[in-house]
Amino acid sequence: MVKIVLGLVIVLALGSGVLNLTRTKDTIKSIRAEVETAKQELSSATTQRDKALNDAKAAAEQAAAAAAAKESAESQATTAKADAEKAKSDLAAVNQQIAAKDTELAELKAKVEAAAQTQETPSTDLADLETKLKEAQTKLEEQQQVARSLESKSKEAEQRAASLEEEKERRIKGLNAPGLEGKILAVDTNWNFVVLSIGDRQGVAPNSTLLVKRGTTLVAKLRVTSVDPATSIANIVPGSAPKGSFVRPGDVVIFSGS
User: N or C, which terminus of the chain has less Cβ within 10 Å?
Assistant: First the structure.
């Protein structure tokens, strides 16, 4: 009887040990699976972090480029204004010289006519007066040519200054050029922004609104955040996309006022 009881105890002990071993193995497998999942999540988080850092760096570079472009535009506008003022000043000075030369020419003509009508004026004096008259006429023609050139230069400078000033105002107010149209090159769904195929050269202005369309369907609205010479960055306006609609590369963007 004792042997039977002892045998049962041994069997139970062995069964318990096997069961504990099985549970331990399962626990180890579970821990390993959790570790692997944690590694994957860490890798994904690291990738997202690196992407966010790269996007932030790119955004900072684009902002710096936009600021530099703005500063350059303002500098060009200031220079164009100065050039226009100088051209006007130069033109005014030449016109004064022309007026003075006109007076001198009229006086010389009067002297030549008076000398030709009297017998008392020596021929040498008459010849000198005629020479001075010709020189004065030549000088007047030269100054008139200079005046025409300066007048043309002044108009061009004024037009350029006006154009640059208009561009400056357009940037400040965030107004795009009429008829502006481009395409979406890339979409970042994590940060809710897009890259556009149009930029400063095409008339895109910071803080302005663009419409995204696919065929005749309105997809979303964009708000321009930074502008480069040939591309620009814009945020997708929250709530502007109809339910189930998504912005895609290749979608057309247009000026909202066109």
Answer: N
Cα–Cα distance measured from residue 221 to residue 135, given in angstroms and rounded to the nearest whole number? 70
Read off the DSSP letter of residue 249.
Answer: T
Task: Please state the three-class secondary structure of 199-216 as a single string.
Answer: CHHHCCCCCCEEEEEECC
Question: CA-CA distances (angstroms) from residue 247 to 67, 135, 240, 250?
Answer: 28, 75, 11, 9
Q: Classify strands 209-214 and 252-255 as parallel, antiparallel or unpaired.
A: antiparallel
Q: What residue type is 184 in one-letter code?
A: I
Q: Compute the half-sphere exposure of residue 28: CA atoms within 13 Å on the CB side of its CA.
A: 6
Task: Give yes or no for a contact between 118 and 181, defined as CB atoms under 8 angstroms apart.
Answer: no
Whether this prediction's pTM lies above 0.90 is answered by: no
**Cα–Cα distance between 56 and 250 in angstroms, integer?**
24
Question: What's the count of helices (H) and strands (E) in the chain, helices before strands?
Answer: 2, 6
CA distance 113 to 168: 59
pLDDT per residue as tens digits for the range 136-185 = 788 878 888 887 887 888 788 788 777 777 776 766 666 677 778 999 99
Total Cβ atoms within 10 A of residue 91: 20
pLDDT, tens digit (0-9, with 9 covering 90-100), for 17-69:
555 666 677 777 777 777 788 778 777 767 766 765 666 566 566 556 556 66
Distance CA 231, CA 248 (A): 17
Give the separation between CA 16 and CA 160, rounded to whole angstroms.
94
Q: Which residue has the tokens 């050029």?
A: 177
DSSP annotation of 193 reads E
